[in-house]
Write a structure and sequence with these properties.
The complex is a heterodimer of chains A (126) and B (138). Chain A is an alpha+beta fold and 126 residues long. Chain A contains two helices and seven strands, in the order αβββαββββ. In chain A, strands 1, 2, 3, 4, 5, 6 and 7 form a seven-stranded mixed sheet that branches. The longest helix of chain A has 17 residues, at 65-81. Chain B is mainly α. Chain B has one domain (13-137). Chain B has helices at residues 13-47, 56-59, 92-101, 116-123, 126-137, and strands at 62-68, 71-77. Chain B has a two-stranded antiparallel sheet. In chain B, a hairpin with a 2-residue loop joins strand 1 (62-68) and strand 2 (71-77). The two termini of chain B are 48 Å apart. The chains are: A alpha+beta (126), B mainly alpha (138). The A-B interface holds A 25-27, 36, 38, 40-41, 43, 57, 103-106, 114, 116, 118 and B 97-98, 101-104, 112-113, 116-117, 120, 124.
Amino acid sequence: MADLFTDITTYLDASGLLDTTVSYDMYPDAPDYVVSLFEYGGSSPPQGVSGVSRSFQIVVRHKDAEQAYAKINEIYGFLADAGSIVYLTSDRWVQLSLKQPPFKIKVDDSARIYYGFNLVLNTYHD
Amino acid sequence: MARAGRISVTVDYKEVEQRLNASVRRVQRGTRKATVAACEEIKEISLSQVPRDSNTLAESFYYDIKGSYRNFEAEIGYGRGGGVNPRTGKTASEYMVAVHEDLSAEHPVGKAKFLEDAVKEYQRNMLARWAMEVRKEL
């Protein structure tokens, strides 16, 4: 079983949503257009319950704000329609919870715009 | 041989009602105190995590408690007060989302998700904390 970053990427890519570089836990200097996945503070379940809750952020960076917004909304809409239980791969299912609709995170010094949203995946511990 | 008889019970509903109302008021008071305690605890955790390039963002922390009787709602956030960051000339409300959500940024002090993580940390023991605060009033 691949790590969760790879499984999310595989799932989105299988639906044709990823048409550019994908980065994990960082933004590359180039290209300007990139889809980035970050993981941040998760939590363990109560004692005796298996699984973990893992928090992710998906971000689209683009020079063109409209294109960044359109792409992040495309990814968000796809996940919103996927239901709460999602098979990312044949080996891994997750319970998916979107935390909020896409929002603008920042504009960097190169005038690239970042739109993203947060989500929580309940899954088993790798 | 058993004898037929009558038992007479007098219930003073007024007194029962008074006692119930007093208990409800104590629970309400405890709930309000628990809400304040929750905000204070989240504040303390969050302020230990908020980036401090200047103190502008930290100083913009606020919480409001609304409601009465059985329902209290707390709003916790940053961006109030209109303080201006001396380095950027921006108010906290103009840049707080970027600081909170930019997971790639490196901060000499503090980190991203300084409010979300504080709430999560508090939530782990939330029920026990609330029960403790309410119980103090009973």
